[in-house]
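Revision sheet: structure tokens.
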Amino acid sequence: MRGFFFLSALMASALSIADDAAPVEIAHRGASGYLPEHTLEAVAMAHALGADYIEQDVVMSSDGVPMVLHDVTLDATTDVAARFPGRAREDGRYYAIDFTLAELKSLAVRERFKPETGEPVFPGRYSGGLPVFRIATFEESLALVSGLNASTGRVAGVYPEIKRPGWHLAQGKDLGAAVVAMLDRFGYREKSDACFVQCFEFTEVRRLRESLGYRGKLIQLLGGSKPGEDGTDFVRFRTPEGLRELADWVDGIGPSLDSVVLGASPGERRITPLAAEARAAGLAVHPYTARTDSLPKWAADYADLIGVLKEAGVEGWFTDFPGLLR
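Predicted:
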């Protein structure tokens, strides 16, 4: 009951902004605030809660099947260590790319936890032992969204992220090509289609356009102050000059919340110029990630967080709790 009253309070506090014209709401790893991330159950719940887009992070199995997982490793969301002891690499981590589709499908998915201690990352989230959740293939996730779109008459888009494509290529797997091919199978080809493809690596973003011929909407994800794994200069891409360069390749940016709003408390926060400068360059802004249980220091509560993002003028946001403000 305590969870019910908490949810009710959040809904009540959001009423003052819920009636405004809402930007697009992107379900981060599905409805990951309520069910284990990226499972088909989390996808279905995100659709039912009215998410405008549903995210799929994509990695690859050893036999070349695109799988929906946030990490290239399995340690923090599955029982891989118990099921396949001795299969870790020298760094002690279990990598999805070292397991076949059948092996990955045998793993049980649970709420994200700290592999060193087994403690949950978000203690208040789903803790039920049953049912057993499984890793979804990219094809299964797209098919479920397509089926729900057809059966409900409400179209939710998809928002796949190509995870560490340069690393995958070094492992002998062309993840970007596999993602584009699967999207093509489901009819996601043009900018008019309800799909955004995102990636942190600008090298891959350019390859998607130049070599792979992808014509749909692209998002350049922006990390912190350090260069990306492929050398992507995130600091430069947050400048007006860098944003204008990006506009030749992508349709929007995916910055962190703290790139859009800064502040150690609600009383001293300030909106950065990033969103306005991106819009001036013709780019959409979809920051990550809005959570009720992990608020930025500048937000008083979840409704306040969303209200400030709307004030900043972003076109949408990623959230673990889709539908909450509806």
